[in-house]
Design brief:
The chain is built from 14 helices and 20 strands. The protein is an alpha/beta fold.
Length: 451
């Protein structure tokens, strides 16, 4: 008897799950299905599990394909199960291709072609809709977004739009998306929400078009480059009961939320200064260094340190000033932004041509908080006091690229969970756009040109 085993969460059970189990059953004579617990899913970074494990097991039973159902609750269990049950074939969907090749030492490994898209024909009655997402843009961040979306239950990336059709096709083929197109009207036909990952200066038009077509929008940072544009777009979203969210991933991560909470708790006293830095060295003919693409250190990176400052000190700053080094083409390679509040100061430091220590320091009257690079992927930070015996370190998980956190909150907001709006509010996004606008327009800007 040939034994086959497969694993999964099997949450929001749909036709794709049904077909995978059917094909898995056809590979042998006896099919064992491993169902992951909520705790193990959370441990491995999978978010928004909706169904209880009891219901998920019941849905698998109803298919009639599983000869035996087991529970997966810890790392390393797959090898244990293969040996325990004398398994001949391990199989999962093709979106995991290569991930489980290490099991070939123990049995045959087969990756089954996944079902493209999510069928509207569900195998059970549910009030929880799977949100179909389309991506505008097919560059580096879009290539990170698709695999991250697989860690969030309740969403599925269906299609990609790019005016350069071959670029869209390449992304669709790579991730087995349902459709790709260079026609924006066709793109809008069968999706509920849009993720915008196009160049900065295209965001406004794409956001407005998506909202007018009734789509929720998650847009990469900086969302737009002027205050008036941001206000207009949020007005459209609110008036049409749609979600508009700026995709600054740090804002949605558990570690950053914990950091902000401790900083504002009074643990370090009254906050008097915030210093946030993010630099990375780049060169060549790339988008980040193209003036016509609104490239440069500030538009590319400043959303992160400005986010930290605004979340800690608020949006009511009195003045902002800039010092920057620019190259002969007018691209800023290194910029410092100074934000002045009534009783606090803050500095945001960014660079594409100058490297600096990428840390976040929040200074207070009773101590300070230090988050070392990469603080924007907050995994650990330390609260330090004059008496070092009182110092305390904090640790949190940050999974993969971190985009799953913003996707999870986007999905929750679409489904009516307004409690998560505080992580990055419309007012905060408007203020971020205003600071970008001031920088682009040269307001209070000291420029040093370098060769």
């Amino acid at each position: 008897m040939k034994k086959v085993i497969t694993y999964g969460s099997f949450d929001l059970f749909h036709d794709g799950h049904y077909r995978l189990l059917k094909r898995a059953k056809e590979l042998g004579d006896y099919l064992i299905v491993g169902v992951t617990t909520e705790q193990y899913d959370e441990y491995r970074g999978k978010l928004n599990i909706i169904d209880s494990i009891v219901n998920r097991i019941e849905h698998i039973k109803q298919t009639g394909f599983a000869d035996e159902i087991i529970i997966e609750d810890h790392m390393g269990q797959k090898i244990e199960d293969i040996l325990k049950y004398n398994i001949d074939i391990f199989t999962v969907g093709s979106d995991w291709t290569g991930k489980f090749d290490y099991l070939k030492e123990y049995c045959e490994v087969i990756y089954l072609e996944r079902t493209k898209g999510i069928s509207s024909t569900m195998l059970r009655v549910t009030n929880y809709n799977i949100i179909k997402i389309g991506i505008i843009g097919s560059g580096r961040i879009a290539n990170r977004f698709v695999p991250e979306s697989k860690a969030v239950n309740g969403v599925n990336v269906e299609s990609v739009y790019n005016p350069h059709l071959q670029s869209a096709k390449k992304l669709a083929d790579k991730f087995e998306l349902n459709t790709y197109t260079d026609n924006i009207d066709i793109f809008y036909n069968d999706i509920d929400a849009v993720y915008i990952a196009s160049p900065h200066n295209t965001h406004y038009e794409y956001i407005k078009s998506s909202l007018i077509n009734g789509k929720h929008v998650l847009c990469e940072k900086p969302m737009v480059l002027s205050k008036s544009q941001a206000e207009e777009l949020f007005d459209i979203a609110i008036s049409n009961n749609l979600v508009l969210l700026e995709a600054i991933k740090t804002a949605y991560t558990p570690g950053f939320l914990k950091l902000i909470g401790i900083a504002k708790s009074g643990e370090i006293g009254v906050i008097r200064d915030v210093e946030a830095c993010f630099t990375k060295l780049v060169s060549g003919n790339i988008r980040e260094l193209q003036k016509e693409e609104n490239g440069g250190s500030f538009t590319e990176l400043a959303s992160y340190p400005l986010l930290a400052i605004i979340k800690i000190l608020g949006t009511d700053y009195k003045e902002v000033r800039f010092d920057c080094f620019v190259d002969k083409n007018g691209i800023d390679l290194y910029t410092k932004a100074y934000l002045y509040y009534d009783t606090t100061i803050a500095t945001a430091k960014v660079g594409l041509g100058v490297k600096s220590e990428g840390q976040l320091i929040i200074s207070g009257t009773n101590g300070y908080l230090l988050a070392e690079a990469p603080w924007w992927k907050t995994q650990h930070f330390e609260v330090r006091h004059e008496d070092s015996n009182k110092n305390e370190k904090f640790y949190t998980k940050f999974y993969a690229e971190g985009l799953r956190y913003e996707i999870s909150d986007f999905e929750s907001l679409i489904n009516g969970n307004k409690k998560k709006e505080f992580k990055l509010t419309a007012i905060e996004s408007v203020v971020l756009a205003k600071i970008m606008e001031d920088f682009i327009n040269g307001k209070n800007k000291n420029i040093i040109t370098i060769n």
